[in-house]
Structures are given as C-alpha cells and as structure tokens.
Write a structure and sequence with these properties.
Rossmann fold, seven-stranded parallel beta sheet, six-stranded parallel beta sheet, disordered N terminus
C-alpha cells in the first residue's frame, strides 16, 4: 500500500472515455474532448483516453501526453433487418458489448484512475457507463447529446434502466456529476434524472481566432458548414432561393438530393482540415444553420461567431442560447425549423442592410470572446473534476 505521504503528492489520474477522438471525429464533441484532455494534462493530471479504433490503421497508442488508447469498437452501422440480428444488435452492440467491457475493465485495472470521465460514448454500447456505475470511483458524464436520456427513457427498458441508475446514484452519494452543454440539454434530461443529482450547464467554448477577420466588403455572402445529413436541414436551405457555399462531404445520396433540389444555388466546397474552418468562415458574412434536431451546443456556430460570421439559424435546441444569450443583444437571427421562406427572408434582411450586418458581426465577436471563451469552459471542467476527486479523498 502507498504511504500517506505518497498519496498526498501523487498525480491524480483521469480516464476519459469517448466514442471518437481526433483526428477521427464526427462533430464538436470529439474536438471538445481533445481540448479538455490537453488542458487537464497541462494542469498536472495524469490523463489517458480510451476510445474507438476509428480505422484499423489507427489502432495504436500515442507516446506523448495525453496517451490515447484506440481499443474500443464503435457499433455505428445500420440495424439488421432480421429479428435475430436486431436482438443481437440491441443486446450486444447497444446495451452491453462484452468486447468493450473487457477493454474497459483491463484499462481500469492497469491505469487505476481516480476519476472516470465519460464524454459522448454513443456507439460504444452502455458497457463503459454501466461498469463505471459499479465502481466506487467518482464519475463525470459530459452530455454533448442524448445517449443517456435515450437509455433512461427507453420505450421498453426505461423503467429498469432508471431503477438501476437511481440505485447506483444513491450508492455513490455525491460522486456522480453530469455536465450539460446547454440549458436546453439539461431541460430535456430533467424528467429522467433522480432528485439531488448534480447537473451543471457548461457551454462549449471557442478559442480566439488566429487571424484578423476580413472587412465586410471582402466577404462572400452565405456559407453552410457541418455534417451533410437530413437532421442538419440542408434540404431546407436547398428549397430556398439562397445561393450558398457548402463546406462538408458531398459524397452521399442526401447531398446529391439537396443538389438536385437547389441546382446551381448550392456550391459544394468539399471537406477541409479542421484547423482551416475558422479562416474559411471568416470569408463569409452569414453562416446558415437550418437544423431540424435539438442541437445541443454547436461548435460550428461558435467558431463562426468568433470571426464575425453572422448566424442565421433554427430556433431549436441550444442554438438560441448562443445566438441570443439571456441579457445580451442577439448576434444573429433565429427562424423556425423547416421554414425555408423564413430562412430566406432572414438571410436577405441581413445582406441588404450593411449597418445591421456590421452590428451583428461585431456582437458575434463580442459574445464569442466574452461569453463563450474556451478557457472559461476548460476551467469550469477542471473545477468539477477536482471537486469530485476531493470528495472521494475526504
């Protein structure tokens, strides 16, 4: 056993579990995880990341901190159509994947963390989550999406899942903390959580741009940036009369459908390296985000704001909290989800009024720098981690 003195001086160990980790990423949650991991490592924590393999060639660990172990299997494919396949998918792929469970257990035994940090583990099955509940370790769950709500609200298993979760929460006392990336995410989780559990809202943050944004007269009009999927509402944009450049992968049937609807009004730029996105956004006056799903806290929108690109976006999910924070002047225009005419009218109103455009652009930069800076997000996450581990040591 370690002596009391050694325990006082040893570095606290954090195991961060996430479905994907850069350079493999589908959205903002993975890039937020990377920022958090680097920050906590620099703050003196011994941090390791357990994530999925991404591709076969990426099944390796890195030698520089934080260490990344790409061992897990992400089950993100389509559900089988036959009954036996669907049953296997539900039990093994979604509920409890024994392969991922084995990797998770082995990592706990090897690394012996003081804190488990679950960051968007969608697609890894619930094995890491369920095994985390069974340990005596403090647990931080970062809610970038709705995987835990889907677990607790499952149509057939929800009652049992909630009973299990409530029992484990009670057993762990105050050593489980949930972090939601927006008030809207917290609201949607509220009905399914046991009373007394810690749920804090910590919005995503954005780092200051490395370039000076171009002047308004040097910018193009409209940009769409994000995943090319129906939930993001690109077909709504395609149904309007807006001419727009599209930053994202055009090589899927949905993208081709949107192209057929819009004709030459949509110009696909393809995918680019993540580090180039803010600079590209700075070349445009407006970012169009016509989402149809409950966007938790879109990092793309914050990046656009940081370079003065004005959001014209759906009034859904956590988007209004970024575009028009309580007590602040809005930095963009919100429209109803699915309203192509409303989207068109809002974009046109910005493009035709330079004075308004400059005011909104300046406000976007102000909010990004003063209300959603990355350092503020990282400091709050560090505080929560320390609080959880300090509770354990008492």
């Amino acid at each position: 056993m370690r002596g009391e003195g050694n325990r006082m001086t040893e570095r606290k160990r954090i195991l961060l579990v996430t479905n994907l980790y850069p350079p493999h990423a589908r959205g903002g949650a993975e890039w937020v995880a990377a920022d958090i991991a680097e920050y906590l490592s620099a703050a003196g924590f011994d941090l390791q990341i357990l994530t999925s393999r991404g591709t076969a060639s990426s099944a390796r660990k890195t030698s520089s901190p934080p260490k990344v172990f790409r061992l897990l299997i992400e089950r993100a494919g389509r559900r089988p159509e036959d009954f036996a396949g669907r049953l296997r998918h539900l039990i093994l792929d979604e509920y409890y994947d024994p392969v991922n469970a084995a990797f998770f257990r082995a990592t706990l035994e090897r690394f012996r963390p003081h804190l488990i940090y679950l960051n968007a583990p969608t697609g890894l099955s619930h094995a890491p989550f369920l095994l985390s509940l069974r340990t005596r370790l403090p647990l931080l769950i970062h809610l970038h999406d709705y995987w835990l709500r889907d677990f607790l609200a499952h149509r057939k298993l929800g009652f049992l899942n909630r009973s299990l979760f409530n029992r484990q929460v009670a057993r762990k006392e105050s050593r489980i903390s949930l972090v939601a990336v927006s008030e809207r995410v917290a609201e949607l989780y509220g009905p399914f959580l046991p009373p007394g559990i810690s749920l804090e809202v910590v919005p995503n943050g954005v780092r200051p741009p490395s370039m000076v944004p171009p002047k308004d007269d040097e910018r193009k009009d409209c940009l769409y940036c994000g995943r090319i999927s129906r939930a993001k509402g690109l077909h709504v944009l395609a149904s309007s009369s807006i001419r727009c450049d599209v930053l994202g992968d055009p090589n899927n049937e949905y993208a081709r459908e949107c192209q057929r609807i819009a004709g030459n009004r949509l110009h696909f730029l393809g995918r680019v390296d993540r580090c180039r996105v803010p600079e590209i956004m700075s070349r445009y006056r407006i970012l169009l985000l016509p989402s149809l799903w409950e966007e938790p806290c879109p990092l793309t929108l914050l990046e656009a704001m940081s370079v003065g690109c004005i959001p014209v976006a759906s009034r859904i999910g956590g988007i209004p909290e970024l575009v028009a924070p309580t007590g602040q002047q809005p930095c963009g225009i919100l429209v109803e989800p699915g309203d192509a005419k409303g989207l068109e009218k809002a974009a046109k109103s910005v493009l035709e009024d330079k004075a308004r455009r400059l005011r909104l652009s300046n406000q976007a930069i102000f909010l990004a720098r003063n209300h959603f800076p990355l350092n503020k997000t990282l400091q709050r996450i560090e505080t929560i981690c320390r609080r959880l581990m300090d509770f354990r040591s008492k």
